[in-house]
Amino acid sequence: MVALFIINPVAGEGDQNDIRQKVAQYHSDIELTAHFLETSGENDAERIREALQTYSPEIVFACGGDGTVNLVGEILRGTPVTLGIIPRGSANGLATELELPYNVHDCLDVLLSGPRINLDTLIINDTYHCLHLADIGYNAQLIHDFESLKQRGHIGYLRGFLKTMKERPTAEITYNGPAGKEKEKVIMAVFANARMYGTGAVINPKGRLDDGHFELVLFRPWPRWYFPFLMVLSLFGKINMSRYTKIIVEKEVQVKLKTPLPLQVDGEPRGQVFDIQVRVCQNKISLAVRAGYFD
Known about the structure:
The chain is α+β, with helices and mostly antiparallel strands. It is about 25% helix and about 35% strand.
């Protein structure tokens, strides 16, 4: 099997030098021919496409966080080449969703021998594509704040979280729901292709990555004292039981805001927005998952 490893050298704590060595040391019943490409932030998509033509891999491993996975997934969408994920980022949302091991050898064992699914992709404002989760409001503000900090990793994420807690963004939104145009005041609205964030917090308990639709998860402003209870519900996959949440199944939705909120797509901040259109793309991505993922 020919595999291409796309390595983000600054993902997570920024030390990815061991990936090449660990892949070289990997032994299995599957004969693996490995090629490597490091992202640099300049012309990465073009360089990856050139590598695909040069090496003709059967599987491409995104070695980084959700931003790296998103970059590689966009290129592979609609092709027969399979996407594999080796989690190396700060949050690793889609890898957490897939319950992938963080050890490189274990991850290769799981993905090279496991099944493939047809991963849905969400198209946002005809510009961004989302494999995992996109949202406006609270979490997007957290990601914007995190990106502005010099400190990375889990400590930096915690500092960003505490900063965002001080001033929660809220907005009145209008969206097309089951009963037509509806209005809600929200602290966050999530366009969920998956079930959970990289922290393990489940915000979309019944979500599937390959069901042809997504869930619009609305979070109404909750009192500050309620936050610990909300976290407990999310960790146990019971967020839908909260009176401060509303979950709607959608294939396409348009959301209009009275005041702008920050937007994030697969962990990448995308600025402030007044209007958002989200739809499911017809082209799928072949995604490597572990055996028994949907059991």
